[in-house]
Amino acid sequence: MNELEVELNCFQRVREYADIEPEEHLSEDHAKSLVVPASWPTSGRVEFHNVTARYQEDGPDVLRNVSFVANPGERIGLVGRTGSGKSTLGLSLLRFVNIASGQITIDGVDITKILLNRLRTSVTLIPQEPVLFSGDVHSNLDPFGESSETELASALAACTSIHVPDSSDQADHAHPAKTARPLALDTPVAANGENFSQGQRQVLSLARAMCRRSKVVLLDEATASVDHETDMHMQRVLREMFPDCTIIAIAHRLRTIMDYDRVLVMADGEIIENDTPANLVKKEGIFWDMLRNTGEYDELVQMIETKPSTS
Ligand SMILES: Nc1ncnc2c1ncn2[C@@H]1O[C@H](COP(=O)(O)OP(=O)(O)OP(=O)(O)O)[C@@H](O)[C@H]1O
């Protein structure tokens, strides 16, 4: 492809973006009526009241009558088989799916009565595959220049204590950030963060959340290329650096959430169990069954008993 073709592609892509309908198109008066106090959310209490949600208006219900409360500072693990609705529940909190009935509130404010941008900048999503932009670590952590250098450096320092192993022990010349550590604010980031491993991308995403001081953090646990050790470090940072945040984590590995305050088990778009891991084990229900099917039952139950203290 010659240079002209590349440039024309860019032009075409910009046109495509410009033609995308805005997700929210409101009159000035309507937008004003959706303003919430600058301090919102102050405590991060998330409540789902009989929420039924679907992707398309005329599509099937993917969440069915979901109700639960995440108290401020609680860490809640979402588990369930593939297709049970875990990601959809997370996405509904950011209004990426249609809420057909019921209500979701954060600190008592109905999330459909807030400007979309305000909602999405207040709830931090740490996706499985975080997006990084070409530039450096600094511009990725704080794209809008809202944090001080000290804040950025301390968030990065907290997160880079997480050891993210390399895919190989050899220096990786094609992906220097995968081997050259520790990460610094001026470490270059290639387009799509291609010079970072998936684990490192999640770590940076965590640091980004820390800079935003979000009260509600939604974490979609990375399934690929993040080993157990990295996972545990991520969890430790979440516990230590976000002590007052409400954390809702979609867990693909049960061991990730064994020390969480509460576990919600989902099946077919519904919450079928909601309790502390210890109580769910005592109950010998679905969660207990899931633990037994891992082949690591004793080890996992032991993790509940040796739960690290948050104080
Ligand atoms: N964009 C979409 N449009 C329509 N239906 C979707 C969409 N995404 C997911 N679904 C459907 O919603 C249901 C719940 O899917 P969801 O991804 O929330 O499950 P999950 O528990 O997160 O699964 P996994 O563990 O595989 O990520 C499934 O039936 C799925 O096919």
UniProtKB/TrEMBL annotation:
Cellular compartments annotated: Membrane
GO cellular component, one term: membrane
Domain ABC transporter: 46-293
Keywords, sorted A to Z: ATP-binding, Membrane, Nucleotide-binding, Transmembrane, Transmembrane helix, Transport
Pfam family membership, one: ABC_tran
Predominant location: membrane
CDD domains named in the record: ABCC_MRP_domain2
Keyword Magnesium: no
Gene Ontology molecular functions: ATP binding; ATP hydrolysis activity; ATPase-coupled transmembrane transporter activity
Lipid bilayer topology: Multi-pass membrane protein
UniProt-listed InterPro entries: AAA+_ATPase, ABC_transporter-like_ATP-bd, ABC_transporter-like_CS, ABC_transporter_C-like, P-loop_NTPase
PANTHER family: ATP-BINDING CASSETTE SUB-FAMILY C, ATP-BINDING CASSETTE TRANSPORTER ABC4
Name of the protein in its database record: DNA, SC005
Species annotation: Aspergillus oryzae (strain ATCC 42149 / RIB 40) (Yellow koji mold)
Species lineage: Eukaryota, Fungi, Dikarya, Ascomycota, Pezizomycotina
